[in-house]
Amino acid sequence: MTQVAMTLNGKKVSANVEDRTLLVHYIREAQGLTGTHVGCDTSQCGACVVHVNGRAVKSCTMLAVQAAGAEVMTVEGLANGPELHPVQAAFREHHGLQCGFCTPGMIMTAVDMIRRHNGVLDEDTIRHELEGNICRCTGYHNIVKAIKAAADQMVAMRTAAE
Amino acid sequence: MYETNYHRASSVEEAVRLLAGAEDGKFLGGGQTLIPTMKQRLASPSDLVDLGGIAAMKGISDEGGAIRIGAGTPHYDVATSDIVRNRIPGLASLAAGIGDPAVRHMGTIGGSIANNDPAADYPSALMALGATVVTSKRELAAEDFFQGMFDTALDEDEIVTAVIFPVPEKSAYAKYPNPASRYAMAGVFVAKTGGMVRVAATGAGQNGVFRIAEMESALAANWSPSAVAGVTVDADELLSDIHGSAEYRANLVTVMAKRAVAAAG
Amino acid sequence: MGVEGIGARALRKEDKRFITGKGKYTDDMVLPRMTYAAFVRTPHAHAKVTNIDASAALDMPGVEAVLTGHELVADGIGNLICGWMIHSKDGSPMNMGAWRALESETVRFAGQAVAVVIADTQAQARDAADQVVVDYEELPVVVSTTDALAGGAPQLHPEAPGNLIYDWDIGDEAATNAALSSAAHITRLEIDNNRLVPNPMEPRAALADYDAAEEHYTLYTTSQNPHVARLVLSAFYNVAPEHKLRVIAPDVGGGFGSKIFIYPEEIVALWASKRVGRPVKWVSDRTEAFLTDAHGRDHKTVAELATDANGKITGFRVQTVANLGAYMSLFSSSVPTYLYATLLSGQYDIPAIHANVKAVYTNTTPVDAYRGAGRPEATFVVERIMETAARELGLSPAEFRRRNFIRSFPHQTPVIMCYDAGDYDSSLDAALKAIDYDGFPVRKAEAASRGKLRGMGLSCYIEACGIAPSAAVGSLGAGVGLWESAEVRVNPVGTIEVLTGSHSHGQGHETTFAQLVSERFGVDTNAVAIVHGDTDKVQFGMGTYGSRSGAVGMSAIVKALDKVEAKAKKIAAHLMEASEADIQIEGGELKVAGTDKKLTFTEVALAAYTAHNLPEGMEPGLKEGAFYDPTNFTFPAGTYACEVEVDPDTGKTRIVKFVAADDFGKIINPMIVEGQVHGGLTQGIGQALLENAVYDEAGQLLAASYMDYAMPRADDVPSYELYTTETACPGNPLGMKGCGEAGAIGSPPAVINAITDAIQNNNLAMPATAERVWRASRGVMAQAAE
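Output (structure tokens, whole complex):
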């Protein structure tokens, strides 16, 4: 057992866990944040995507101890109080979710995607960038629309601010 | 996953020492292969020595005729490095196509080549670019480093610390992904370095990455897609599984070679 | 939000919790003193269990118990059942082998559970499960339908000689044979429908809690139909009587049929929670999901279509062998019979049809309903042979279909179904226009100039939804009625709770059902709560599958709303001293027609509960329930058009454009309906191009993870173009037909018809993987080059 401390959604947290504990289980079980999901065993479905030190990673493919001392953000940390993150709002606006199980991972992937591309995304790029996230409900159609809309909106907000 | 003891090393020396103290330890790179393998209970190291905290193993530097990439550098950093993009565009595009964005943030070049998965992308680049693998003990030519499926020249306690890539005149990579895993069913890296052409294929061979001499000589004589269009590799040496027969993979190797040459310009 | 009635693209009320990570799925539930279950599963597809040694596992840290089938049988837990009786054509009942939740004698598919370990943590349970030593004596294995029926094949169940479950037929054999023998032309096709794994993204899970003092169980589980689960667990598995068992299906992460059934793991979790005296949680991992979730499809069919000299269909003969796997899952028997062969008339006027279906056991995972369930298999047979016949007859595929469309309704087919309404020309016209069918040759030539092969494929599908009426399905062998129930509770403050037996696991009922209430009473959708998924809250319900929640579930709500409205009007009339007939409900108010007298809905509700001034003899309160039993199936139909481009170098198919023109009858929320179609299309395209649950000869599932089972990803599919046409369904009060499965039903033949058109070779199996397409196109390319 190891005492693993990190910053989770801006708050300092700590828990005593086995070294084999995956980051996703640390988040879900030790910290009680169940928005991050486990959908496969082979690091492919992306339901578990969180941000570690600002980058999207699969929390089922990282030990909690590897993230000791890191800044970790989950879907629960995305909204600013009652104000949804633009990607969250776009998923709702464009019906980019049905059962909701892949949604947290999709949203965290989308936020990271928009950041890396500076908001400049076309449909083909979005589809290609979703390679590591599987959705069985939506057929991706509205997820792609939602990400495109959020990216465009974030670019527009940035332009307006300049 | 079985229980394991985790250690974080801050230097190569410390990592070697920590492993020596373990009953059945393993080095942990980005973990994108080892952790899934442990989750499936197909590996159960008593100890994991995490190399992720070793600053000296990270980063990309231009050393004139060669590019040095620290073994702990994630695929994303290789893919987006201006140095790599300008000097070895084929390598940058290869790195940009490994796994998916989240995997590219964690997975490292050192971890990839030390594992030598027959469907991994990097081994083809190392072979085609004539790279040198720097380890905690020695320097090895890529040819000598890769020794067959999941097999390398590494000793148990030896760590890949960097890879040195000579800068080529031309380079490109084309792969046909497995529709399920998205690993390479056939990936071909072509490079012309110092006038010398090398072609290496991954994903298709029964013994991992391999060079294709006939394509190399054809391209040395005539650098064009048509030069390799008629060259086929022997299907008897290729993998066959539910995703593609050896015969189909042989076809893919030729098609990917053509496309890589076209992309290299 | 406001008033958002029928037809509004209302945003979903349930989304907020999902996009903020606050959804509550079964694995998110935590109970005090909770233990975890891990199953010991056979690696062999067919073997005798000769010994189970749990001693090492029992010594492992945290282990509470190791349980096997011996204890299960001793405790009187019943065998798993199949709830739909099919009789063979000779009148004999289907041959059903025994299926125990934990098997201690003979295992029949790789992954079947032999024992369970209960421990303090999931990791401890799994560590200990590895230490349970099971000795097996391997038996010969059979995996394919063809082999299963062959003489000398390994036998799975003593109850089913020759591995034959039933030999069933439908239609007029003599008339069909006559039509074939006098046909001007016969088109014959051998068609395999590939086995699929449903793969909802949330794996199955169960959390069982036994209260010893009350002798009461609570089960949180990933179910599409918690009441059916409770009924079956109670009536057949003897876990507990219904009033001592509460089943809760909280947020459920997709189902697609696979979460209809009651599986061994849920039964064992319940039973084990009493055994160990602590709550027991089991969460499937993805590998377990591949091995144990009921699979879908897996048919082998020979079809013959007879046409006359005018290109009119005169007869259709179909012989199918359906692989049901190692055991008969809950509704497995109905899928290749009443959900399949009854749809073989398609959209066409076919005078004679005969189908023979043999169902067989093999050493593979059980097969049951998966999105579409029987109807995709029927549509694939019909639409592949329609396309093939058109090509053989030298007719345009669109024209050949049109020549045979049914145009007058009601239409009685030769295979039970009576189509109530439809307009197949409209959806075909819409699809052809949208895909620019006439401009295709130009695009094909342009692609050819780039070395690519373009193809166009159509699929004019029909399906039957809202499976019912109860008396009809009962006469066909169903073990349950297929009605739905609803209760509408108006609170004293005027807010409304709708309790429904339907279950939402992605379908957006919390929004759509609220829109119905909003439409009826003019109240804000935010003032309406939809309650579902808990047997303690909702009295009874049949759940959600077969695209039934709209046509059946909402019809029940309509009936309950009718009763509420009638009572509210009586109260309002009484309070305003008006005639009941003059009361109109509008904008949340009850008005007296032609006057300015009105009461708000809230005022009427409050009056109902204060009961200070009610009409003489009226009971207080405003709460009504209803059961709705449909009068017929509903018949969604449409045309899908698919344009593909094949890369002959690799055989890779790219879907350039996919158009869907559907007739779902009345639509409540177009946004949600479109989402259903997108998802269905992607599953159908996945079947057509990628997905294949393939076994080796030893009965090992070779595609048992996402490393080998090709799930459609975002870059495998296009953005879709959707159109709807509307003929109202006369069979239910809202005129709804159902939309949940159409995409998965109609799309596979459109894709395969397009690829076979592109490569000019009709001999192409599904999934049309790149290698298969490459092989099938090679000869064609060589010819073109000559």
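Chain B has a mean pLDDT of 97.
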